[in-house]
Amino acid sequence: MGFLTASARLFHHPLRVVGTLTFELVLVALRKVPGSRAAVQRVRRAILTRNLRRLHDVLAATAFDGRYAVCGGMLLGWAREGGLLPDDLLDADFVFDAVDAPAFTAAVPMLARAGFRPTTRFRNNDGKPAEYRFERHGARFEFFVAWNVGKRIRYYMYAGGDELVCERFCQPNAPFEFLGRQWLKPEDHERALADNYGDWRTASSDWHYTQVQTVIARHPAKFEPEAWDGTEMPEKIMPVMIQSASPTR
């Protein structure tokens, strides 16, 4: 099948064609088709959907099943638009409690064998692993570790050499249906989204993740991001109580 023929068929059967061509070749083909921006978005949506289902099904067969929740843009897209956000098709975020680190550790080899390549690990300024990153077909799948801090949970993000300390209200998870699978989300997802985005119902074209309202402190990161292949796991993540951070605002 030639590039142009494959590209034209992508408008109608993206999953079928992507199954026969690599992701990179698909994008090369699409550049030769008028209106290729919409087609690229269509293909990326199809690929991310398929990969999210694959990730879900892999983890469903592990002890990590039921121990992680959807967050970030994937949750926002479901709540606001009933689907994946069109400008967030190369990233999917999840969060899990620090007490479930052993289950996550045991699941990593299964994810790797399923094609989710471990690439990067971030440590917080206390030296504890705080974020893990996998890649597949050009998209990132990120798992954030959360610690209980009283009635709130604390997690960490990283940008421009800085560590962003984030906190939001702690609440139980609840199941929801999305992309043909059952996932977990914060029970009151509207409160969680409001904590994170403020007016989450209104789309913003220039929004950046460093603008989240859950950030309570920002300071230089003590540790560089670590290249991680999933074979050398860190020490057990201890679910200890953490002293309150000093806010920067």
Short summary:
By secondary structure, this protein is an alpha+beta fold. It contains seven helices and eleven strands.
Structural description of this entry:
The protein is α+β, with helices and mostly antiparallel strands. It has a domain at 66-227: Beta Polymerase, domain 2 (2-Layer Sandwich). The protein contains 7 helices and 11 strands. The chain has helices at 3-10, 14-18, 23-30, 36-60, 72-81, 101-113, 189-197, and strands spanning 68-71, 91-97, 117-123, 129-136, 139-149, 152-159, 162-169, 173-178, 181-186, 215-220, 226-227. The strands form 2 sheets. Strands 1, 2, 3, 4, 5, 6, 7, 10 and 11 form a 9-stranded mixed sheet that branches. Helix 1 packs across helix 3 (23-30) and helix 5 packs across helix 7. The longest helix has 25 residues, at 36-60. It is globular and about 55 Å long. The N and C termini lie far apart (57 Å). The model is unreliable at 1-8 and 234-249 (pLDDT under 50).
Task: List key phrases describing it.
7 helices; 249 residues; disordered C terminus; two-stranded antiparallel ribbon; disordered N terminus; 9-stranded mixed beta sheet; Beta Polymerase, domain 2; alpha+beta
Kindly identify the CATH topology of the domain at 66-227.
Beta Polymerase, domain 2
What is the H-and-E element order? Answer: HHHHEHEHEEEEEEEHEE
Biggest beta-sheet profile: 9 strands, mixed
CATH architecture of the domain at 66-227: 2-Layer Sandwich
Overall geometry? globular
What is the CATH class designation of the domain at 66-227? Alpha Beta
Helical amount:
25-40%
